Amino acid sequence: METTKNLTPDLFEPAETDVKEQEQIARKKLTFWGDVWRRFRSNKGALIGGILLLIIAVMAFIGPDMNPYTYRAQDYSVINKEAFGDHWFGTDALGRDLWTRTWYGAGISLLIALLAAAFDLFIGVPYGCISGYYGGRVDNWMQRIIEVLYGIPNLVVIILLLLWLDPGIFAIALAMGITGWITMARVVRGEMLKLKSQEYVLAARTLGASTSRMLVKHMLPNVMGPVIITIMFSIPTAIFFEAFLAFIGLGIRPPEASLGVLIEEGYKQLQLYPYQLFYPAAVLSLIMFAFNLVGDGLRDALDPKLRQ
Amino acid sequence: MGRYILQRMAYMLITLWVIITFTFFLMHLMPGSPLQNVEKIPEELQEAILKEYGLDKPLPVQYVQFLGNLAQGSLGYSYKYDGRSVTDLLMQGFPASAQLGIQSIIFGSLVGVLLGSIAALRRGTWVDNTANVISVLGYSVPSFVIATLLSYYVGVKWGILPTGLWGSFQHTILPTLSLSFLVIATIARYIRTEMLEVLGQDYMKTAKAKGLSRTASIGRHALRNALIPAVTVMGPLVIGLITGSLVVEQIFAVPGMGWMFVESIQVKDYTVIMGVTIFYSALLIISIFLIDILYGVIDPRIRISGAKE
Amino acid sequence: MGKKFNVALALLLVASLALTACGGVDQSQGGSSGKQVLNLTETQEPPGLDSSKTTDTVSFSVLNNVMEGLYRLDKNNEPVEGMAESVDISKDKKTYTFKLRDAKWSDGEPVKAQDFEYSWKRALDPKTKSEYAYMLYPIKGAEAYNSKKGKADDVGVKALDDKTLEVKLEQPIPYFLGLTAFATFNPLRQDIVEEHGEKYATEPDKMVYNGPFVLSEWNHNKDFQYKKNDNYWDKKTVKLDEINVSIVKDMNQKMNLYSTGKVDFTSLGEDYVDKYQGKPDVYQHNEATNFYLQFNTNNEFLDNAKIRKAISMAIDRKTLTDKISKNGSVPAGALVPPAVQGPEGKSFRDLAGKEYIKHDPKEAKKLLEEGMKEAGIKKIPKLELLGYDSSGAKKDQEFIKEQLNKNLGIDVDLRPMSFDQKLKLESAGDFQISYAGWGADYNDPMTFLDLWVTGGSFNRGDWSNKEYDKLIKKSKTNPDFDERIKDLVKAEELLMEEAAIAPLYYRSQLFLRQTYVKDLYTHPFGADFSYKWAHIEGK
């Protein structure tokens, strides 16, 4: 080619070389969470679950306002009608719009579950941290308490509590939280025990870090993984339990709606108006499904043993 | 080991005592009376009847009395079912519930192990995905929805099995199926994770290197090692089955304990509520205990005497 | 690797198929051999068959069919002779002398007058803890004995000889014969009761029977079975050989069992009404029960009769019964349900001649404004409706809330409670409006009207009217039953004019009954069902 002939040495310039850089043989730098995110993303199921959750959460917010009906307004001219006009899911036995009620109920159910999860967090995590971190006699006593509580059938406690309290959003969440934090405490304690013997903790301690700094700055971030996974599984359990409670007549009060209450109402109409069971049950199952997918995905992503 | 068992038993007793105390006081805090016809009975008569039952005494006195009777093995008499002891009622309800529970554990475990193993061995393929979807569905669909659908479609529409009631083996199939979904889901998921881990272990490579056939190595090494940790999920499963049985028994009209429990709460039959609570708790505590012991026995890596996580 | 796993999978499939396959064979069902068999469901098993102590509808039904009192209710709910052959009533209508027929217990022993005396006094004995002892209070000295103020010997029931029973009443009442059909009035065999003690009537072989059937089997919480009683005095009338009752709580399951032909008679849930509407197997059972709104007159707003009446008129009862409760209930415009009888087989409602309250939102609005002017109230306060938390009741309450809001602009807060909690709040007067129901104890309007006398323990709303009190008081001791019923009609009119309550509906229950089941009677009082005359025809 012609151009090659015109090449002169002054067109070239030596490349700048850094010995240090040449020594480095690392792939792109990844933080722990970055790696988790990468692996989570590559898990199709988890991604689908995450998107599903997002959609459901958004629908729980805007769904009830998408048509002109409220979750409680009754219209006796349209009782038990299958989807028509802007009643996209049809109407129930009191002529209430099922679309609005379903999304409203989904919101309530999620709220109950989140509240219950918050109880898990606020009781279980500190309990487990303290027990695991301090060890020794403190741990011994705290573990004995857990051991005693673990044998209590949570179902019985929840039912009895709800008979005593009036079933409302807060009461149901409280009843579930009171029994639910134990699992969380056990998980956190286990993690703490593991972390305690790690070198970096020792290093931090040698450098004179205070206990609270140690706990909050160094150890808590490292138990976040298992905590998130536990939450991911305890939320659907709470939603499930709420539905179960509604089924045995301990759900929240009318005209409030939760998925459990809606399923209980739809259940009775199954043979004639199966759609009244179908929609809320489908949403409930989707929520459970999504949380489980996300939970599974997160667990795989967070578990170094399953790293490919 | 002996000392460990003794210690555990002491804790079990304490747990039971906490439950009994908690339930006792909570129950008496509940508004309402165990009388059935409160609206129409003259008030003096109500008081007289409550006195006959000993319900007029201060709570602590009733509590001590209850514990005393319990120590002698008596759970008292039902308020609702006239002249029937709580122990009798429990014994009447237990067989059906136990049969359902055991059947669904066995059936569910078999299917679950199969599903989980296949999923792990064919990781990432459509087989794995299908198995995953099935097991997640088992978690996601409430047992009462499954039960209702089974009773209606299999029982009424297709007419293959009885829609409900209790009697022959056929009557147990649908309720067992409804309950075993949860078992399948739990076990399958657990087995899959464990299998994946085991398959990556060195001894699997060794087995392969020794020339063991794939089936043999999976059957003899992988599955067996994956099964051991699965024992630990049995505790939560027992709880799950108890919960499920409350609604499933009602839906299929099974004369079991779950249904009895719900009913006793609705009519405030104090002694029966106490009885069932104690029974459930004891069942749960003993299962957890047995599982721990069993776990120590089958997994040589775990020394029970020093059992701490 | 595949092979072995495929084999395992195949095996599993086969196993599960086998599981399903053996379900194909059904249990053999009786009935084809010309045997008369009836299959039923109940929501629970009878909690106690000791007739002195029992309190619930299932037990009452069982007792009505395995036992018999002096009288029993027939098809038209009129008392017909049972153990009694005849009765002699004194002039002052306070002494009844019953002649017993030659009837036997299921173990062959004769039924004696002493069995009645023993049973009634046992129920009244405070030690028995009978919750229904008050049903015997019309008998002289009964209340005193039951509340430990009198002696057993002073109770006005006495066996003059084996076949003659003398009963003395406190006051003349027109409904005493019907009352003797109630379970608490059944005879009891002292020897059997004492032999079994606390365990009496807890198993079929721990009791004896004198009714059309005997209890032959009782699998607790599962099912129980009746067989025809060969020692029953009127056994030629009894056609059924066997009745099987399964305990089923779940409404869907009941419907499944009915549609697969496993049961012949079962209650029809409100959610299934649409499916069976207009079919010949729907059977409507009218109860003597009224549901109404109780106003608390201690509330300034609700103390005004016009306002109360406005609220009452604002509710569209027809929509409530036809579209919401859908159980055949009838919109109520008065207090006493049509099932309650007056004299000579006429219904009290026919005698009264009218319903007092009609749905009229316009008139209601007008009344509300007038009432508020009268009472000097400028702004409508927010009201609270106390109610039940069962799912059916919840729907009704939601409907009422919407109606008052729509028609009168009154904002109502719902307060659904468990039965006991509600009762407690009511008796403490801690409510504004209460959604309440009352079922008749006996076949007479007094069972309803008695509730609203000044100072009465059931007068929760403290409504008070002197004229009303006078009428009720007079009627309680009036031996002239014609005048008495006229006074009661007047009393009801007063109650309605002042709108002490807003009647909602007379409750009914719907059942599904296969068309081949004939003459199975239901009663609005006491026991729900009579199988004595029932039979299967053309199955």
Automatic annotation (TrEMBL), chain A:
InterPro entries with a match to the protein in the record: BP-dependent_transpt_permease (IPR050366), MetI-like (IPR000515), MetI-like_sf (IPR035906), OppC_N (IPR025966)
Protein name (Swiss-Prot/TrEMBL): Oligopeptide transport system permease protein OppC
Gene name per UniProt: oppC
Segments traversing the membrane: 45-63, 103-125, 145-163, 169-188, 223-252, 277-298
Cellular compartment(s): Cell membrane
PROSITE patterns: ABC_TM1
Span of domain ABC transmembrane type-1: 106-295
UniProt family annotation: Belongs to the binding-protein-dependent transport system permease family. OppBC subfamily.
Keyword check for Secreted: no
Main localization (coarse): membrane
Organism annotation: Kroppenstedtia guangzhouensis
Membrane topology label: Multi-pass membrane protein
Keywords: Cell membrane, Membrane, Peptide transport, Protein transport, Transmembrane, Transmembrane helix, Transport
Highest rank taxon of the organism: Bacteria
UniProtKB/TrEMBL annotation, chain B:
UniProt-listed SUPFAM superfamilies: MetI-like
Chief site of localization: membrane
Keywords: Cell membrane, Membrane, Transmembrane, Transmembrane helix, Transport
Stretches that traverse the bilayer: 9-30, 100-121, 133-153, 173-191, 227-252, 272-298
Source organism: Kroppenstedtia guangzhouensis
Domain of life (superkingdom): Bacteria
Family assignment from sequence similarity: Belongs to the binding-protein-dependent transport system permease family.
Membrane topology label: Multi-pass membrane protein
Alphabetical list of Pfam families matching this protein: BPD_transp_1, BPD_transp_1_N
Span of domain ABC transmembrane type-1: 94-295
The protein's name: Peptide ABC transporter permease
Location relative to the cell: Cell membrane
UniProtKB/TrEMBL annotation, chain C:
Annotated InterPro entries: Peptide/Ni-bd, SBP_5, SBP_5_dom
Keyword annotations of the record: Signal, Transport
Methyltransferase keyword on record: no
Chief location: other
Solute-binding protein family domain sequence ranges: 78-457
Extent of the signal sequence: 1-20
Compartments, record wording: Cell envelope
Superkingdom field: Bacteria
Chain segments annotated as transmembrane: none
Sequence similarity: Belongs to the bacterial solute-binding protein 5 family.
Protein name: Peptide ABC transporter substrate-binding protein
Gene coding for it: oppA
